[in-house]
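hey
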C-alpha cells in the first residue's frame, strides 16, 4: 500500500476520499508518434511501455462485473496499441460509454486505416488534443507539420459526422504553451469555434481547457528554464476550494499499462498507486476502491487552480 504523506496540498484541501466509481480510465502505454513538450508521461516513439492483451482481458472482466458506466482510453497514443480494436469490440455494450483520447496525428499511421470509421460505427466519443488554433503554436509544442495533419484529421471526422451529429461527439483539448493558467474555457471555446470555422470550415462539440501539470517532460522544461518554483507557486496561489468536490479522482480510477490501479493518470505518471491493499485490476476490491483515501501531492494544485482542471475540462466557472 502506498504510504500517504502529509503535504502542502493536504494542508489546504484536507484529506480527499473517493465516491462511487463510474469511470475507468485506461492508459494503453507511453508509445506515441509524437514527443510533445508538455507531456506528463514523457511519451515518445521509442517507448516500450505498452499494455498487453492479458491486462486488457482483466480490465474487460472488471468493467463488466462492476457495471462501470464509462471507459476512457488514453496513452501515449492509444491508436498505436495493436490490440485497440479488439479491446473496444470486447468492451462494447449498449450502456457503456467508450471514450478515446487522440492526438489526431496518430490517425494517419499506416496501421490505422479505417480507424475513424470504426470509431463512428461504435458511436465512440473522441477527445482530441489541439493545443491552439494557430499553426505556429501547435507545431512549436508538438513538432513540425502536426497542425496540418491535425486539421486534416478533423476534416475527415467532420465528414463522418463527428461534431455535427448529436451522438458523435468530438471535444477539443486546449492547454497553454507555457507556465501559465489557461484562460476561461467558455471564451477559449468561442475563439476556437470562430477561428476553426473561418480558417478550415471545421466544427466540434466542446472545448476542454486543461492546466499543464508540473510533472514529466513539462517539469523538465520548467526546471531547465528556472521556472519550476514560480509555476508551482502560481498553482498554489490560485488554489480554489470550490473545485475539490468535482475532482476527477473522486469518481474514477486509472489503470496503467501493467494493470496497476492509480487514482488518476497523473499519479500513474508519478508512480503513486492507489491507496489499497492490492492495487491491480486483476483482483479489484470495488468496496475499497469506492471508499479510498486519494493519494495526493504538490502536483494536485494543478487540478485545483483557478477554475480547476480535469479530463473533462474546467471544474467550475470561476476566474482562472
Amino acid at each position: 500500500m502506498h504510504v500517504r504523506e502529509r503535504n502542502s496540498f493536504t494542508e489546504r484541501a484536507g484529506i480527499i476520499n473517493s465516491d462511487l466509481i463510474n469511470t475507468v480510465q485506461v492508459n494503453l502505454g507511453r508509445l506515441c508518434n509524437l514527443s510533445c513538450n508538455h507531456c506528463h508521461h514523457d511519451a515518445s516513439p521509442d517507448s516500450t511501455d505498452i499494455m498487453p492483451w492479458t491486462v486488457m482481458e482483466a480490465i474487460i472482466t472488471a468493467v463488466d462485473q462492476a457495471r462501470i458506466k464509462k471507459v476512457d482510453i488514453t496513452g501515449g497514443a492509444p491508436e498505436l496499441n495493436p490490440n485497440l480494436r479488439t479491446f473496444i469490440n470486447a468492451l462494447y455494450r449498449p450502456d457503456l460509454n467508450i471514450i478515446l483520447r487522440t492526438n489526431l496525428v496518430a490517425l494517419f499511421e499506416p496501421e490505422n486505416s479505417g480507424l475513424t470509421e470504426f470509431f463512428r460505427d461504435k458511436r465512440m466519443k473522441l477527445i482530441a488534443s489541439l493545443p491552439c488554433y494557430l499553426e505556429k503554436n501547435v507545431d512549436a509544442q508538438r513538432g513540425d507539420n502536426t497542425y496540418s495533419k491535425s486539421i486534416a484529421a478533423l476534416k475527415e471526422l467532420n465528414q463522418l459526422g463527428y461534431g455535427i451529429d448529436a451522438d458523435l461527439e468530438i471535444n477539443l483539448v486546449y492547454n497553454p504553451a507555457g507556465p501559465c493558467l489557461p484562460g476561461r474555457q467558455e471564451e477559449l471555446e468561442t475563439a476556437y469555434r470562430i477561428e476553426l470555422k473561418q480558417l478550415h470550415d471545421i466544427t466540434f462539440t466542446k472545448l476542454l481547457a486543461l492546466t499543464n501539470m508540473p510533472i514529466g517532460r513539462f517539469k523538465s522544461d520548467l526546471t531547465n528554464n528556472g521556472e519550476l518554483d514560480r509555476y508551482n507557486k502560481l498553482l498554489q496561489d490560485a488554489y480554489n476550494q470550490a473545485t475539490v468536490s468535482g475532482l476527477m479522482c473522486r469518481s474514477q480510477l486509472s489503470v496503467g499499462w501493467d494493470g496497476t490501479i492509480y487514482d488518476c493518470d497523473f499519479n500513474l505518471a508519478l508512480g503513486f498507486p492507489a491507496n489499497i491493499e492490492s492495487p491491480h485490476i486483476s483482483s479489484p476490491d470495488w468496496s475499497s476502491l469506492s471508499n479510498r483515501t486519494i493519494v495526493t501531492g504538490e502536483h494536485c494544485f494543478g487540478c485545483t487552480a483557478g477554475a480547476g482542471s480535469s479530463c473533462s475540462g474546467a471544474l467550475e466557472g470561476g476566474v482562472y
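The chain has a mean pLDDT of 92. The two ends are 35 Å apart (CA to CA).
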